[in-house]
Amino acid sequence: MRIGFSGVAAAVLLSCAGCGFLLPQRRDQAVVACAPAPGATQTSTPTLIRLVGGRTASLENNITEGDAYVCHRDLGPVRQLGYHLVKRTYYEGRDYLLINSSTGHRTALPDTPVISPGGRRVLVASMDYEAGYEPNLLQVWRVTRDSLVREWELETGEYPPARGWGASDPVWRSDAAVELMKNEPEDGHAITFRRLRVHLVRQTDGTWVIRPSP
Fold first, then answer.
1. Domain-located, residue 107
2. How would you write 154-196 as a 3-class SS string?
3. CB 64 within 8 A of CB 85
């Protein structure tokens, strides 16, 4: 069993109690742009991301079957951050890109980004105890004017074998606290999980710690 996020834009970004953030505006138009161009056999039309000032960022797709395969799906602008969200699918596995709408700076994330209430940070909770294509880890990124800065990271587990734990269902409670589920494989198997609710809290010295839920 794998507990995590899908790549569907409607489920992306905003697990925040009472935040009212906007989802990407063009989620209904988030069509995979990986159909081959006329006459092409191995590559496909690039995915173009519109930046501020009329510029574009070109993301090359390759529909060759095998390890070279990559397809970029435009999930639309994240206006809360001033970024564009892109899902990048490989032959095995996937990740996400946040592209700064002004500078074009790209940040690769292992799973769906979740925005804090004030838009100052982004949390990533990646869990894969099914195929092992994605890592089991937690990341906190700080949003700056022109890029994202990784503030904290914790590798929570590995698969195979099923060790450690995986994080899922994150909800920001403030800009400095996240509530999430800690999923521990039972008896070393990735079929059933012991689920515990925990909090990820930012301390006064800037570090992050995981604590049991009160």
1. yes
2. EEEEECCCCEECEEEEEEEEECCEEEEEEEEEHHHCCCCEEEE
3. no
How far apart, in Å, do the first and last CA atoms of the chain sit? 28
**Dihedral, CA of residue 144, residue 149, residue 155 and residue 158, to nearest 10:** 90
Q: Tell me the two tokens of residue 74.
A: 């435009």
What is the rounded distance in angstroms from the CA atom of residue 161 to the CA atom of residue 70? 27
Give how many domains the chain has, as a whole number: 1
- Measured CA to CA in angstroms, residue 177 lies from 150, 156, 207 at distances of 16, 18, 12
Q: Is the peptide bond prior to 117 cis by the omega test (within 30 degrees of 0)?
A: no
Whether 18 has a pLDDT exceeding 70, the answer reads no
Residues 134 and 153: their CA atoms lie apart, in Å, by 15
CA pair distance 77, 51, nearest whole angstrom: 10
Give the C-alpha separation, 23 to 27, whole Å: 8
Q: Is residue 2 part of a domain?
A: no
Residue 132 domain boundaries? 9-212
Query: In this structure, is residue 3 part of a structural domain?
Result: no
| Residues 199 and 171 sit within 8 Å (Cβ to Cβ) | no
Q: Report the C-alpha gap between 204 and 120 in whole angstroms.
A: 16
| 1 is a domain residue | no
Contact by Cβ (8 Å): 72, 47? yes
Res. 1 pLDDT band, cuts 50 70 90 = very low
Confidence of residue 38 (pLDDT cuts 50, 70, 90): low
